Amino acid sequence: MSRAVLSIGSNLGDRLAHLRAAVTLLGGSARQVSGVYETPPWGDPDQPAYLNAVVIAQDPAATAHDWLERARACETAEGRERDPARRFGPRTLDVDVITVWDADGRPVFRDDPELTLPHPRAHLRAFVLRPWLDLRPDGALPGHGPLAALLAAPGLAADVAAMTSRPDLSLESMG
Ligand SMILES: Nc1ncnc2c1ncn2[C@@H]1O[C@H](COP(=O)(O)OP(=O)(O)OP(=O)(O)O)[C@@H](O)[C@H]1O
Ligand SMILES: Nc1nc2c(c(=O)[nH]1)N=C(CO)CN2
């Protein structure tokens, strides 16, 4: 498995520093990093706004599970604590594995609760789709279709309208 799209988000503490730490920890595998967006909280409204971005990562040696391990390692390094009572609650750093392509460029589909691929809620999340679209205008979420079409769905309109680009907060050259 060699290529992955990772979503990074933070809404506690120094949000930009947490995102930068994720990019730094991913190291040379982080090939492209999107711009940063300020986004309304999804799934649990009573929490601060998030900063979100997307990383396109590549490593010929990495399995799909390796991407999950790397995502978890980033979260742990940034002091992520889980509140079992709040599924979509606030966090210093969230790193989700959105989709993985194998060495032959085929998308990986996996229905395993430990690692579901593509990420089961990615198609509902403007904070994932919009920064990914910036990096891949012709991109598609395997199993769901073109990013641009997913973002145009009526259910995402309010989230798209409420998110703001933050060009003042760059993650570039962090990889
Ligand atoms: N594609 C995936 N990316 C990341 N974690 C996943 C994925 N599929 C399943 N998981 C599992 O989900 C568990 C919970 O992850 P986490 O606490 O980050 O969820 P969350 O960020 O609160 O919600 P969400 O997964 O909707 O973003 C992880 O321990 C992981 O094993
Ligand atoms: N805007 C936004 N909302 C979220 C985010 C996130 O990264 N950005 N992550 C969550 C984790 O499940 C829950 N809600």
From TrEMBL:
Q: Which reaction does it catalyse?
A: 6-hydroxymethyl-7,8-dihydropterin + ATP = (7,8-dihydropterin-6-yl)methyl diphosphate + AMP + H(+)
Organism field: Actinoplanes siamensis
On whether Methyltransferase is a keyword of this UniProt record, the answer is no
Pathway, per record: Cofactor biosynthesis; tetrahydrofolate biosynthesis; 2-amino-4-hydroxy-6-hydroxymethyl-7,8-dihydropteridine diphosphate from 7,8-dihydroneopterin triphosphate: step 4/4
- Pfam families cross-referenced by the UniProt entry: HPPK
Protein's UniProt name: 2-amino-4-hydroxy-6-hydroxymethyldihydropteridine diphosphokinase
Q: Which InterPro entries match?
A: Hppk, Hppk_sf
One Gene Ontology term of the molecular function aspect: ATP binding
Q: Which CDD domains match?
A: HPPK (cd00483)
Q: What range(s) does the 7,8-dihydro-6-hydroxymethylpterin-pyrophosphokinase domain occupy? A: 87-98
The catalytic activity of this protein is classed by the Enzyme Commission as: 2.7.6.3
Q: Which domain of life does this protein belong to?
A: Bacteria
Q: Which GO terms describe its biological process?
A: folic acid biosynthetic process
* Gene3D superfamilies, sorted: 7,8-Dihydro-6-hydroxymethylpterin-pyrophosphokinase HPPK
Q: Which UniProt keywords apply?
A: ATP-binding, Folate biosynthesis, Kinase, Nucleotide-binding, Transferase
